[in-house]
Amino acid sequence: MAKKLPITNSIRRLRFDADEMTQQALAEKVGVTRQTILAIEAARYSPTLELAFKIAEVFGKELGEVFQYVPASEQTK
Amino acid sequence: MSYQERNNWIELLVALWAIGYYGVTLLSVEGGLGADLSYFLPFLVKVIVVSIVLGIVLAILNRVLSKDANDAKDEMDKAIDMRGFRNAYWVMSGALMVVIFAGLANERMLEVEGAPQIATTNLLIHSIFMVAALSGLVQSATQVFYYRRGLL
User: Fold this and answer.
1) What confidence score (pLDDT) does residue B28 get?
2) A58 to chain B, minimum CA–CA distance in Å?
3) Where residue B69 falls among pLDDT bands split at 50, 70, 90?
4) Average pLDDT value for residue range B75-104
5) Does residue A2 lie within any of the structural domains?
6) Residue A8 in this model has a pLDDT that exceeds 80
7) Is residue A69 part of a domain?
8) Which of B2, B4, B70, B74 to mutate: most A Cβ within 10 Å?
9) Which domain covers residue B126, as residue numbers?
10) Residue B121 in this model has a pLDDT that exceeds 80
11) Of B84, B89, B10, B85, whose CA–CA distance to B52 is shortest?
12) Cα–Cα 20 to 30 A to A42, which of A35, B30, B70, B123?
């Protein structure tokens, strides 16, 4: 199984809920490339705190509603 | 694949070409490491110039053909760059130490009868080029690896 970060996120669902916002549109709003959004969604990259706040701000959510910490011990359950 | 990742692939391929072409020539020339530097110095300059020109041409092509061409690097690009530089630094530091000791050992070997006789200048010139090319290769390979796998 591919290794994943202990931080998961709800960006894909939030994009869908936000009128099916594209990854490119989100990337442009927060000032990164589409590949970075793709990597964050796939839990292959943990954004900096600043970028995490920017993403949450785009969706009008609190940080904890967008990113969740899942300890490694719970990931295998 | 992003514009920045394609640039890393270009750097990787150019470094592979330079090391491959230089290495094959070194092995195929009569005398190998000990071959006359009057042949190898112009060849070395040629490899460096062709590598730079090839890298620039491919980078321009990438820029012209990429819809997402953007020289500004975002935070993930910068984090990946840092890992590439870190690995290249370790390779360069380690390899330079080996080159220094190889040069010193070679000086001793020149005094030993029957041992292979390779001028230390030859050894150092070939080694320094290889160290520089190898560290560039490691940097690009590291960056490509992290773009593919992600920063876990």
Assistant:
1) 85
2) 18
3) confident
4) 93
5) no
6) yes
7) yes
8) B74
9) 3-149
10) yes
11) B10
12) B70
**Residues of B with CB below 8 A from A5's CB?**
152
Q: What percent of chain A has pLDDT over 70?
A: 88
Report which residue type is found at B120.
T
Q: How far apart are the CA of B84 and the nearest CA of chain A, in angstroms? A: 16
Q: Which residues of A are less than 8 Å from B143 in CB distance? A: none
| Residue the block writes with tokens 């391929």 | B13
In angstroms, rounded to a whole number, what is the distance separating the alpha carbons of residues A46 and A33?
14
Give the number of domains in chain B: 1
Q: Do A32 and B149 touch (CB under 8 A)?
A: no
Q: Tell me what ipTM this predicted complex has.
A: 0.79
Q: Do A46 and B151 touch (CB under 8 A)?
A: yes
Could you give the number of structural domains in chain A? 1
User: A51-60, A64-73, B43-52 — which one is most confidently predicted on average?
Assistant: A51-60
Quick check: A1 contacting B, CB < 8 Å? Answer: no
What CATH code is carried by the domain that includes residue A11? 1.10.260.40
Q: In this structure, which amino acid lies at residue B39? A: Y
Is A1 part of a structural domain of the chain? no
What count of residues does chain B have? 152
Q: Which residue in the set B2, B79, B152 is minimally distant from A33, CB to CB?
A: B2
Residue numbers in A near B3 (CB within 8 A) = 33
State the residue range of the domain holding A56.
Answer: 7-75
